[in-house]
Amino acid sequence: MNHAPAPASPLTHLDNRGHAHMVDVTDKADTRREAVAEAWVRMKPETLALINAGGHPKGDVFAVSRIAGIMAAKRTHELIPLCHPLLLTAVTVELKAVAPDSVRIIATCTLKGATGVEMEALTAASVAALTLYDMCKAVDRSLQIDWLRLLRKSGGRSGLYQLEDA
């Protein structure tokens, strides 16, 4: 029986012994990288109307969710094992009512570096959605978070990725 370690793959967080490790990006070129992710939150129409009218008892739900998403993007490496700590150059989180019962959250993260920002954008969108949920759960128990997904990423060796139906 051969017990030789498998060669490490640059596409995995497993080393040549099969152990999890942080991928070494030392030899990767610094390029401008950007990732855009989205999440949707569905709620009762009256809940969204309350938010839009500025009458929510917890205050400006969109503003608090936006700040939570930005803060989460900056701390992704503390939340997701093996993510690199990154010096993000820009983070935006937009929340927009897109139907009488839905909010679309778009998170965009940018940097110039050796590794991508997909996890940061996904983390920003998910934490913004969770914050919106947390702030509204007392007035609407039927809240639902949907569609956490990567819409687009650019930069690095793999180039551009664009979700086809986005």
UniProtKB/TrEMBL annotation:
Active site per the UniProt annotation: 134
Which reaction is catalysed here? Answer: (8S)-3',8-cyclo-7,8-dihydroguanosine 5'-triphosphate = cyclic pyranopterin phosphate + diphosphate
Q: Which domain of life is it from?
A: Bacteria
- What is its pathway? Cofactor biosynthesis; molybdopterin biosynthesis
Keyword Lyase appears in the UniProt entry: yes
Annotated region described as Disordered, given as residue ranges? 1-20
Residues holding substrate: 82-84, 119-120
Which stretches make up the Molybdopterin cofactor biosynthesis C (MoaC) domain?
Answer: 22-156
A Pfam entry, by short name: MoaC
Keywords, ordered alphabetically: Lyase, Molybdenum cofactor biosynthesis
Extract the GO molecular function terms from the UniProt entry: cyclic pyranopterin monophosphate synthase activity
Question: Which InterPro entries does the record cross-reference, listed alphabetically?
Answer: MoaC, MoaC_bact/euk, MoCo_biosynth_MoaA/MoaC, Mopterin_CF_biosynth-C_dom
According to its UniProt record, the EC number is 4.6.1.17
Subunit and partners:
Homohexamer; trimer of dimers.
Family according to the record: Belongs to the MoaC family.
Function, please? Answer: Catalyzes the conversion of (8S)-3',8-cyclo-7,8-dihydroguanosine 5'-triphosphate to cyclic pyranopterin monophosphate (cPMP).
List the protein's name: Cyclic pyranopterin monophosphate synthase
Task: Please give the organism.
Answer: Pseudomonas muyukensis
